[in-house]
């Protein structure tokens, strides 16, 4: 025993030293956030040689960026050239240079920047204007057509466009229209100042329409005379529509004749889209009215997508096909629309055309790729021979400074910084390096990076990295107790938390199975857990116990159908029930017509994940369409307890 004591003591002292330096780094970061330069400098001296020393230097430079000399910044950029930190510092420095209008230095550094945001693009265009670059204004013009707030440093560009008579009054109306459609009233008021005073909106009327649209319309509906009046009234109608489809549809005939055909078509398209989101069967008729009112005003890709969903739910394959074929070429290339277009073509007997779409789609590893594969008569099996990174490949990745910084940040639970560092480091990797990096992440327990990194490969794949099975022993007992499908539960956990044990959502959901506090408390009471408190909800075994119990609860309440239970787990059992139809509905169509984009995407990924897990875990295979099933009509739904509606 004495023979190994010096080595053991060295290991202990090393661990203590690392822990102490980690504490120093957290303290340095807190000093930076507090703007305490002196305290930050103290910790910087202690952290020399630490893997995260570049971050401390970055913090120091950030606090003095307004006054630091150029050589000091350039030294950092040179020392850490190609790193995420160097790009971040260059970005912040360029904003400082732009604010001070130090255009010569700005022009030198800007081409080296990788991540360019709108603020920096506007500074770059300002610099080019100052250098009499005649093309700068032409490039600035597209920035104008945006209904959202833009950085204040873009304003000089718009003023230059106005002075050069490159922004016409109609351009102002277009952006005003975009801002009001997005509900950005403050942006609309700013844009309004670009209109001549005799054409501008009444901001008082705009405020009245915002606070109570129905009262505004009742008061003003006989006074809609100018373009400004019509714009505010349309905005009020959209506000009314957001709160009630019925109310807006009932009120529209009272004012519709005071609008021109283009404006009528505009409102009807919005009415139809909102109705589809609410699964209102009148939606398709309103879409037809929108198009017939003004055939030259096309529906947007987003509106065409909602029209296609409404048609799917109605079983109107002709309209499904027409909607997809009317989309932009880029939108038609999305997997979702290639799949449903192929299905629509099949109903018309155009099998060859359908298979031309399905064949390449079936090679993609996602929900629609799986469905396409099945449409062509193939059932997903175990993926082909995986590519396993070699020892040297893994060691080479492990030694990279960016990877080491990312792992150190993950160890300190600074996930935002760690993920930014990781993603930057692997951004240009080929398949082999991606899989080596994914294996490094897996070995270090950073499962979310292992998954997302392995997901990026194009030709070489390792599905054990895309679909890992951590905590399997802990999960088995709960699966047996609740009689749940292991592949489905793993598919759900992968989507919920990516196996981050202490994951916390912005809404407050925690742990592997992302339980909301109220749900966890309710389940704990049902399970008669003794001495339960919310902190336990993040503990792995407790989280799995609570999560699988609740999952079984919603599964039983929703016809033992994993598709519905997945929707319920994300959006609540009441909504999953409401999204059913008056007639039996193909599971894939139910999933496609879920009104909430987040839940729609979630359900597809959970069900797709479950297929891959069933394959890699060696379970009995069934098709994805079998897993999705047929959703029974609303009339057969089991009643849920009041607290679960």
Written description of the protein model:
The protein is mainly alpha-helical. Helices cover 66% and strands 1% of the residues. The protein is globular, with a radius of gyration of 29 Å. The C terminus is likely disordered. Among the domains are: 71 residues, Methyltransferase, Methionine Synthase (B12-binding Domains), Chain A, domain 1 (Orthogonal Bundle); 171 residues, Orthogonal Bundle (Lysozyme), CATH 1.10.530. The chain is built from 38 helices and 2 strands. It has a two-stranded antiparallel ribbon.
What is the CATH class designation of the domain at 474-644?
A: Mainly Alpha
Strands side by side in the biggest sheet:
1-2
Shape: globular
Proportion of beta-strand residues: under 5%
Second-tier CATH architecture of the domain at 474-644: Orthogonal Bundle
Cα gyration radius (Å): 29 Å
The overall average pLDDT, rounded, is: 94
**CATH domain fold name of the domain at 474-644:** Lysozyme
**Low-pLDDT residue intervals, each spanning 5 or more residues:** 8-14, 636-645
Give me the count of strands: 2
**Terminus-to-terminus distance:** 64 Å
* Contiguous helical run count: 38
Approximate helicity band? 55-70%
Largest sheet: 2 strands, antiparallel
Structural classification = mainly alpha
């Amino acid at each position: 025993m004495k023979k190994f004591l010096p080595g053991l003591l060295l290991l202990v002292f090393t661990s203590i030293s690392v822990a102490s330096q980690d504490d120093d780094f957290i303290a340095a970061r807190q000093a930076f956030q507090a703007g305490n330069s002196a305290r930050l400098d103290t910790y910087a001296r202690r952290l020399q040689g630490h893997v995260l020393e570049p971050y401390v230097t970055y913090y120091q430079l950030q606090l003095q960026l307004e006054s630091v000399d150029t050589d000091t910044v350039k030294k950092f950029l040179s020392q850490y050239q190609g790193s995420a930190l160097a790009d971040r510092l260059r970005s912040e420095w360029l904003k400082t240079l732009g604010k001070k209008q130090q255009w010569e230095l700005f022009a030198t550094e800007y081409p080296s920047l990788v991540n360019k945001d709108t603020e920096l693009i506007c500074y770059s265009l300002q610099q080019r204007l100052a250098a009499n670059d005649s093309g700068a204004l032409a490039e600035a013009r597209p920035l104008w057509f945006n209904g959202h707030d833009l950085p204040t440093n873009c304003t000089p560009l718009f003023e230059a466009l106005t002075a050069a008579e490159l922004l016409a009054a109609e351009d102002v109306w277009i952006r005003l229209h975009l801002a009001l459609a997005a509900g950005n009233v403050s942006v609309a008021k700013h844009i309004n100042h670009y209109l001549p005073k005799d054409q501008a909106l009444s901001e008082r009327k705009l405020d009245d329409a915002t606070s109570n649209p129905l009262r505004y319309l009742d008061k003003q509906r006989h006074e809609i005379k100018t373009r400004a009046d019509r714009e505010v009234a349309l905005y009020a109608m959209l506000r009314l529509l957001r709160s009630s489809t019925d109310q807006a549809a009932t009120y529209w005939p009272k004012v519709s004749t005071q609008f021109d055909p283009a404006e009528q078509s505009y409102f009807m398209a919005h009415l139809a889209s909102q109705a589809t989101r609410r699964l209102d069967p009148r939606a398709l008729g309103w879409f037809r009215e929108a198009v017939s009112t003004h055939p030259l005003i096309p529906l947007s890709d987003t509106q065409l997508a909602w029209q296609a969903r409404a048609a799917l739910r109605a079983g109107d394959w002709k309209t499904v096909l027409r909607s997809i074929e009317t989309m932009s070429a880029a939108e038609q290339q999305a997997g979702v629309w290639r799949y449903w277009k192929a299905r629509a073509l099949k109903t018309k007997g155009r099998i060859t055309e359908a298979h031309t779409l399905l064949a390449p789609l079936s090679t993609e590893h996602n929900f629609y790729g799986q469905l396409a594969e099945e449409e062509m008569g193939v059932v997903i099996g175990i993926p082909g021979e995986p590519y396993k990174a070699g020892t040297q490949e893994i060691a080479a990745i492990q030694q990279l400074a960016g990877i080491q910084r990312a792992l150190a940040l993950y160890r300190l639970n600074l996930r935002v910084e760690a993920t930014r560092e990781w993603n930057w480091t692997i951004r240009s990797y080929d398949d082999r390096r991606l899989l080596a990096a994914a294996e490094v992440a897996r070995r270090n327990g950073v499962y979310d990076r292992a998954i997302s990194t392995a997901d990026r490969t194009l030709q070489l794949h390792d599905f054990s990295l895309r679909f890992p099975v951590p905590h399997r022993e802990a999960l088995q007992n709960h699966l047996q107790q609740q009689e749940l499908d292991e592949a489905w539960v793993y598919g759900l956990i992968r989507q919920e938390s990516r196996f981050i044990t202490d994951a916390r959502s912005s809404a407050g959901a925690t742990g592997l199975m992302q339980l909301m506090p109220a749900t966890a408390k309710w389940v704990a009471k049902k399970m008669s857990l003794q001495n339960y408190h919310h902190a336990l909800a993040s503990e792995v075994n407790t989280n799995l116990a609570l999560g699988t119990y609740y999952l079984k609860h919603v599964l039983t309440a929703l016809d033992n159908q994993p598709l519905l239970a997945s929707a319920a787990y994300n959006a609540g059992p009441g909504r999953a029930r409401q999204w059913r139809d008056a007639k039996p509905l193909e599971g894939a169509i139910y999933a496609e017509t879920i009104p909430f984009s987040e839940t729609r995407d979630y359900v597809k990924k959970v069900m797709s994940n479950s297929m891959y897990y069933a394959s890699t875990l060696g379970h009995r295979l069934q098709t994805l369409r079998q897993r999705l099933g047929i959703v029974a009509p609303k009339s057969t739904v089991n009643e849920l307890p009041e607290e679960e509606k």
